[in-house]
Design goal:
The chain is an alpha/beta fold and about 350 residues long. It is about 45% helix and about 20% strand.
């Protein structure tokens, strides 16, 4: 059954609250405990132990941790996945992506958080987070460059798969025909737009290796024929013009404010009069009671900015009807749109 609420995917974070919860769940995926339970209404522990690659004490501890996290529950016929977790399992790719991403950058939080607060340049040099998102590798040509780029693109593509649906709920792309997605990554955002709106064609502008991987990502989809990729550096190379919508999805926060302003100027130049510039970004991280799943976002806390800077820039460029909408996801997102005169 497909979810009807575009934000229903947020239920996965309820199973990633603590490090222990997340680590036990990751182990249950790795040891195929989740797969085996998903195939049955319930299983006796003895049956589950058959073929389990560990001993009985290990299985019992794992099941106890999963039970505490509401992943499994006891039923008359044995252990079963809870109904809440079965609903979350419809977003399995997102669950596993968040588990992988948080595990990759956890040492940056446990070992380097003091540097992140006290000395951001030292943190940037030492953190795995910034080595993972090493955009200079996307300019290379070696097999290692492609594999390094694929690793972070798998994460961003999965996040965009779900976040895009929310954006499409809040902006009608049906009035547009030629979309340019700057820094569009694997083309997932463009793919979701084209899937919803059959009259739209889209161009993704991004770094060379990103475009190569993106083409392979979308070409197997029916909408792939309506998506093309242009390789380049958005700060220095010409953007394709004559567009009636230019979008920045989770891209501008990667750049200092001065560069972000340059990108908006260049996007304006790519738009036809009457065209729309759209920005869909995370706002400043609202801490509250952050969960384990929030660790990657906490490490980027200096990058996420208020929409005010973008609103001011669009105003300076003469855009009309500039609008800001806040959308509550696992952190606050904002959607900024404006019309070129």
């Amino acid at each position: 059954m497909e979810p009807t609420d575009e934000r229903e995917y947020l239920c996965v974070d309820g199973f990633l609250t603590t490090l222990i919860d997340a680590r036990a769940l990751k182990t249950a995926f790795e040891l195929r405990v989740i797969d085996r339970l998903a195939a049955h209404e319930a299983m006796a522990v003895a049956d589950l132990a058959t073929g389990f690659p560990g001993d009985g004490r290990g299985l019992r501890l794992l099941l106890d941790l999963l039970r505490t996290n509401r992943v499994v529950e006891e039923r008359p016929r044995g252990v079963a996945l809870s109904e809440d977790f079965r609903r979350a399992l419809r977003f399995r790719d997102l669950l596993e992506t968040k588990l992988e991403y948080a595990a990759l950058v956890l040492p940056d939080f446990t070992d380097l958080f003091t540097a992140a607060i006290r000395d951001p340049e030292t943190f940037r040099r030492q953190a795995r987070t910034f080595r993972l998102f090493s955009y200079d590798r996307a300019l290379g040509a070696s097999a290692e460059d492609y594999e390094a780029t694929r690793r972070w693109m798998r994460i961003t593509t999965c996040l965009t798969k779900y976040e895009a649906g929310v954006c499409l709920q809040h902006h009608d792309f049906g009035g547009h025909e030629r979309v340019l997605d700057v820094g569009g990554n694997s083309g997932e955002f463009a793919l979701r737009i084209c899937r919803r709106y059959p009259a739209v064609t889209a161009t993704v502008f991004d770094l060379p290796v990103v475009c190569d991987i993106g083409r392979a990502h979308v070409e197997r989809e029916p909408e792939g024929a309506r998506i093309d990729f242009v390789r380049g550096n958005a700060l220095t190379d010409p953007l394709p013009g004559g567009r009636d919508l230019v979008s920045f999805k989770s891209m501008l926060h990667d750049w200092p404010e001065r560069d972000a302003r340059r990108l908006l100027v260049r996007a304006s130049e790519a738009l036809k009069p009457g065209g729309t510039l759209l920005i869909f970004e995370r706002g400043p991280v609202a801490t509250g009671a952050p969960s384990y799943a929030m660790i990657p976002l906490l490490l980027f806390f200096r990058s996420f900015r208020s929409p005010a800077a973008y609103v001011d820039q669009l105003g300076a460029l003469g855009f009309r009807g500039v609008d800001v909408r806040w959308i509550d996801l696992e952190t606050p997102f904002f959607l900024v749109t404006g019309t070129k005169p």
